[in-house]
Amino acid sequence: MELAALASAAVPGLAPTGVSGAPDDPADFESALLVDESGKQWRVRAPRHAEASMRLETELQVLRAFSPGVRAELPFLVPHVAGTVRLGDLRTFVYSHIEGSNRSLDELAAGGRELAREIGRAIAAIHELPRMLVSEADLPAYEANEVRQRRLNELDQAATTGRIPADLLRRWEHALEDVSLWRFNPVVVHGDIHEDNLLLDGGRVCAVTGWTDLSVGDAADDFAWLAATQDTSFADEVHQAYVDARSDAPDEHLLRRAALAAEFALAQWMVRGLALHDEDMVAEAEEMMRSLSADLAAEEAALAADADDDGPADSSGTAEGQGENQDTDTDSDTGSDTGTASRDQEDLETSALPVVPRP
Question: 20 to 30 A from 78, CA-CA: which of 6, 176, 290, 332?
Answer without folding.
Answer: 6
